[in-house]
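User: What would this chain look like folded?
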Amino acid sequence: MRRKLILMSGAVIAFGLASISCKNNEPDDKSDSGIITKIEGTVANGGSYDVDTVKVMHNSEEATIVLASSKWDNGKFTLNLPATLPDSYVSSLENEEGVTISDKAAKTYLLSVLQLYKNGKYKGTVSQAAKAGASTAKIQYFYTDRDVVLSGTTIGGSEKITYNANFKKGWNTVYYILEDTNTDGKVDKASYATQKPKDMTFEWTVSISSQN
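Assistant: Here's the prediction, encoded as structure tokens.
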């Protein structure tokens, strides 16, 4: 399976320069089929950030494309996701030992963060994250051109990586969870799941670039 589905082996989720509670812990607008059609957020004290736009960006060797854009209204935003993605934006999932892919013809796309701008200048990112005990988690968004299930466990570097994800055609919410089971400050277990982790409250995390 492509490493693009794994953020970074051994990486710890950074909660950025500021963590702010979202008024709605489940901001994604889901259709009856379970897929999401837009990403909505309300960041407390959002007006304190020098930001005017939130964007979903696709970067390729040829160009940088805006997939979705929303006004940053004192921390409120709504990103309407494209219903489909061009073939040139998506890629196949590759086999990885211990992991079963229900449909190997699936073409997919992983969105990790939303980007913040002011007058067209990049300012930072906003995403949803949570922490409970020795576990940290981050919400990501996964697009697939057909229903596909990922299941099983594999080893990536020093991590045991488990997949328990039932993706529907379209955009899905996926929870990327990192655990330090030995409580030694090192991540040794990671997982991708479409089921929200119990006892975790997700908050919007704003991370402003140090270059601004």
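The radius of gyration is 17 Å. If you want, I can go into more detail on any region.
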